[in-house]
Write a structure and sequence with these properties.
disordered N terminus, 433 residues, four-stranded antiparallel beta sheet, alpha/beta, 43% helix, homodimer, seven-stranded mixed beta sheet, globular, 15 helices
């Protein structure tokens, strides 16, 4: 053997692809280790509370698969690239519940909706292509897109969701028929991180714009069924069959089983299929079979109702605590469902640098700039999560966080009172409390 | 709503990324539908026979996970990007069995080894970069690489694996320190599709070359533990800790649960981790937990012995049938393990066009050109699989295939006898029967 002490081929440090040089590690992931300190209450995650799923429901779904010789054999074997027919039919049934009619041929199963985002990015994006998203938007959608080096243009939202006037200006600027514009990505229900929901009027306007500008529309809907007040909104997919809809069982069942889906026109799925083959051959057949039987054999609606009740109580606890403890300079959104509240602080507060103090005080959140493609906007905002902690813990976390913010603000108030700095206007993306 | 009859945004047909335009659908996948005709015996797949796994072993592994409240909660929740510690420790134990020492920090879990290939490609390959592989090689490795538009250079093998003299010439031509050369990809044990195994001498030479040329070496080892004759070979990873080793449970347990792994230096894994976040957040926690308990709580070695015995008998049946039925002009490899035999026919036979006749005769295989990056080489060869069908079916399939080949050859023999065409020399990649 050659003497390896004098030889190196770990030069991979310098040899990664260009696309990787632009990737940032997810701050949520980086916080995972800190958040496991027992004294810290985490508002930074986005996890469902899977302890609400009864043991019996899981056992029933799993037993249906492994106790039947034929089903077990299928669950242990390679599956087809686009997913198992049984699970596709289950998706059709779940889609029908929310007002979307589709056939199994229009369904493509993925390893969570995150893989759907990555596949769409890989299928459609060349470097320099344009993607329009809400700003702020789901940070790991940005990771999925950034892997293919597009220009991501953000459109702000208000309490009625993405601002259609600004979207229209943006589309005009990009120009009709611009081949670089690949798709618009939106989370219309209880947006991550914003918590806001697109109004019916904005939805209709979005469909009009998409048709006028001939651009593909990607509707990401992980939280749609977790509504704690107000009425069901019609999915964009139900308004135009050409919408590319993304769904997942991560929030209605459990994210530990990786089953998501794309509902889209067949010619779109054919292209995605080609890309999927080289990505992972197929999704977990075992997960697909268990999930199919969970949504057909068990009383899953009852579990969903338990999710809705518990998360609704937690949302209320968080909003009440915000009202009670947060300083008057802070504003935040009032989500009717989902997992998140978006908090906006005065412009002179940097939530990124404040995170260390928050952690010291025993609470974590995600700094707002993580949800923008360039990390320049959102520095005075933060995402806080209410799905995972008890109402008591949420209240305590918000109390701790309020103290940290209050300390920051006190210093600035002195300057403001002295007229040395000007208090800023409420930014576009805020709901005045 | 606008009148959608006059409006279209399904122009995605023309708007896919450049990388997608180069992708071909996998012929193996395309054959799936044909192969499900009950009268057709498929030699085209690469599936393990999961019916050999006893129901009790699966039940025991699943029960260990779902009957324990804490384990069940973890199995249903999001996991970390790099995988669960328990399953990583299991990988360390499996690696120790084959002579590789590693720690959990050097293990990165993936959704099957296929995802490992795709992640490595995405992390390291810019368009125009160079990858060296055996030629022919695993066709879905080519799909994983081609998604990032490298130049794939193939090096032929013989009965002792990749030809080191040709590899050395290739490396010399590329030039020492050429930043475009990213890695060498090899399947040293029972290569797919070749069935050949790299000799100990060639392994040592490969490590020397890799060190001399400072190039990353990716060792893909899905079949290593399925040896039906001969002694265990030392993994390349055991010869140099900087090798990037890929493993999977797809062939030692079941591919329906998607668990594969990369064992590599930590700085390589850190880069891959960044890329994985945007790809699918995490692998199936449920699959990881079940697989961990399969390899710790059950008598999995006994199942592995059953795989080895049954596949060994099938390999024997196939080799005997080839000997009995195949024409003298055909040559084929004699695998000591794994799933595949590589058949080489005279150069004037096109196995691609012959496939329709084979299907008509009730047998399928994969044409050899699928296993080359440009589809130009290998046109007179084919991959046949022996892991999935019974010895009787394999014998019948080879008999049918021999008839199809014989018919092709008869016509050519007339021309050869008349001196109109010259019988070709045995090509490099063939083992003379």
């Amino acid at each position: 053997m050659p003497n390896s002490a004098h030889l190196e081929f770990d030069t991979s440090r310098d040899r990664v692809a260009t696309r990787v040089k632009k990737l940032r590690s997810s701050p949520v992931r980086d916080l995972f280790s800190a958040a496991t300190r027992p004294d810290v209450i985490s508002l930074s995650g986005g996890m469902p509370d899977v302890s609400l799923i009864p043991h019996d429901a899981i056992k029933q779904a799993v037993s249906a698969v492994i106790e039947d010789d034929a089903l077990r054999a299928v669950a242990l074997q390679y599956g087809s690239t686009d997913g198992a027919l049984g699970m596709k039919k289950t998706v059709c049934s779940l889609m029908r519940d929310i007002g979307v009619r589709c056939t199994p041929e229009q369904v493509f199963l993925t390893s969570g909706a995150q893989q759907a985002l990555a596949l769409i990015a890989k299928t459609f994006l060349d470097p320099g292509d344009i993607v329009i998203t809400e700003g702020p938007t789901y940070l790991t959608a940005l990771s999925a897109f950034n892997g293919y080096e597009p220009e991501v243009i953000t459109v702000p939202f208000d309490d009625d969701g993405m601002r259609m006037d600004i979207l229209e200006e943006t589309l005009e600027r990009i120009g009709k028929g611009n081949p670089r514009l690949k798709f618009i990505y939106t989370i219309p229900n209880f947006q991550n991180p914003g918590g806001v929901t697109m109004s019916d009027e904005r939805r209709r306007r979005l469909i009009e714009l998409v048709q006028e500008y001939q651009v593909m529309l990607v509707e990401d809907d992980p939280y749609g069924r977790l509504r704690y007040e107000g009425g069901h909104q019609v999915p964009l997919k139900a308004m135009d069959p050409r919408v590319v809809y993304l769904g997942t069982i991560s929030k209605t069942m459990a994210p530990g089983l990786r089953v998501g889906w794309i509902v889209a026109p067949r010619h779109v799925l054919a292209k995605i299929n080609l890309v999927k083959q080289g990505t992972d051959l197929c999704c977990s057949s075992f997960d697909q079979a268990v999930v199919e039987h969970y949504f057909t054999d068990t009383n899953w609606q009852k579990v969903l109702q338990a999710f809705i009740q518990v998360y609704g109580e937690r949302r209320d606890a968080m909003l009440e605590a915000l009202e009670e403890f947060f300083p008057k300079e802070a504003t935040w959104t009032h989500p009717e469902g989902g997992f998140f509240v978006w908090v906006t602080l005065p412009e002179y507060v940097d939530t990124g640098s404040m995170l260390a103090e928050a952690l010291e005080a025993g609470v974590t959140y995600v700094p707002g700039d993580s949800f923008y493609p360039d990390g320049k906007l959102g520095k005075n905002s933060m995402r806080i999560n209410f799905s995972y902690e008890s109402p008591e813990n949420l209240r305590e976390a918000i109390r701790r966080l309020a103290e940290v913010i209050e300390e920051k603000l006190e210093l600035y108030r002195v300057f403001i009172d002295a007229g040395a700095i000007k208090p800023d206007q409420p930014p576009v993306n805020s709901h005045v409390n």
